[in-house]
Amino acid sequence: MDRNPSPPPPSRDKNEEEEVAGGDCIGGTVYSKHWLFGVLSGLIQIVSPENTKSGSDDDDKYQMELDEEMENEICKVWDMSMDEDVALFLQEFNAPDIFMGVLAKSRCPRLREICVGILGNMACFQEICVSISNDKNLGQVLLHCLYDSDPPTLLETSRLLLTCLSQSEVASVWVERIQEYPAVYDTICFIMSSSTNVDLLVKVGEVVDKLFDLDEKLMLEWIKNGAVQPLDQSQEDSKEQPVFKIVPCVLEAAKQVRSENPEGLDVYMHILQLLTTVDDGIQAIVQCPNTGKDTWNLLFDLACHEFCQSDDPPIVIQEQKTVLASVFSVLSSIYASQAEQEYIKIEKELPLIDSLIRVLQNVEHCQKKPENSMDSNTEETKKSDLTPEDFHLKILKDISCEFLSNLFQILTKETVAQGLKEGHLSKPKCSCVFQNLLPFYSPAVEDFLKILQEVDKTLADDLEESFPSLKVQT
């Protein structure tokens, strides 16, 4: 260098530097307001009147596609919208109105999917969820998205609905809105009965499960919706517009998700259980012989050949406790109203009795306390004992005991002999049954013991010795 260096620039106050650096940032993030404005402006241009006119086939094809650069940009917004600062900024900028315009006008499946996905992320924050939910026009547009033929868009729409239904402040708004649109029932039933997209089926199932749990009136409406063919509908119309029934649709979806998504199967089993909480729901399952038989066979197969198998470790019951509770509850309801049906024969149901006993054995194993905690009786220990796991295990145990007691009441001499021969009944298994059914279900145990005296007196005497209260009074 042949000269002295230039003097440093004038110093700035630290606060001034932070203001200059952060002036374009959204909240506490590093995301640029200016960049986001540009992306949203681009969205507005996409759905502007001159770009949405119906023209040639090439124009229609163009409207169905999304420019790669624009897709990348809007996907970045989708990712960013999981940040609360960004979501609130989008809300302040009236982005939901922009997305509503896109959903109302655009025929591009990918663009529609992304816009619903962004709204779904924004709805995870309570303030925004309330705002979105209370917008009647946006609510109508979102429900209309359920009629879309694009599975990814349907998935994001279902995710958004589930998010809103899970917010207590606005759940009733969505329940009422769905009740106002009967076509929602048809499109959801169509998805459950025909889709092979497991992710979509699981999310739609979660929506239905939440709706039924929130509002019994809506559940009853959906139960009755496909029960009877409208009198004024011609035969020709009937072929064009099939009448969906809720139970076969739920069963079809359950079969589809069974092998690929255990959590999804749990959801659909809980839907069936909710249906059995009302008389109309039970009738919807059993009024058609084929429906009752299909339901019984599917749940019987799950209980006897899939869950809580003899070679599974006892702890597996912790993973399966909720779905098993639903399965046994529905089977018990069907049995109570359809015991005379041909597809329910006790000699065929001995494996079911075996499965119920095995579940009770595993529940007992999981509920055993460590030896070093037996002498502890502190308040802290008592509180820690009341865990959610214990609560769900207790529900499973109660349902299993009630169902088992009903099955034991109809055992005959022949079926008991068959059960002993095939290993479905044995001394350890009978002891487990007695231990769990007494004293609340004493009549069922006493009736079984009388039959056992005729089939295997030695075993009956051994059980009487173990349970003195059961000794026959002479």
Q: Which features would summarize this protein structure in a list?
A:
elongated; 70% helix; mainly alpha; 474 residues
Question: What does this entry look like structurally?
Answer:
The structure is a single chain. The chain has 474 residues and is mainly α. It has 28 helices and no strands. The longest helix is centred in the C-terminal third of the chain and has 22 residues, at 317-338. The chain is elongated, with a radius of gyration of 30 Å. Residues 1-21, 228-239, 371-376 and 378-384 have low confidence and may be disordered.
Q: SSE layout and pairings?
A:
Layout: H1 14-22, H2 33-46, H3 49-52, H4 57-64, H5 68-80, H6 84-92, H7 95-105, H8 109-122, H9 126-134, H10 136-144, H11 151-165, H12 171-179, H13 183-194, H14 198-214, H15 216-225, H16 235-240, H17 246-257, H18 262-275, H19 279-286, H20 289-305, H21 317-338, H22 350-367, H23 379-385, H24 388-408, H25 413-422, H26 427-437, H27 442-455, H28 457-466
Helix pairs in contact: 2-5, 2-7, 5-8, 7-8, 7-10, 8-11, 11-14, 13-17, 14-15, 14-17, 14-18, 17-18, 17-20, 18-21, 20-21, 21-24, 22-24, 22-26, 27-28
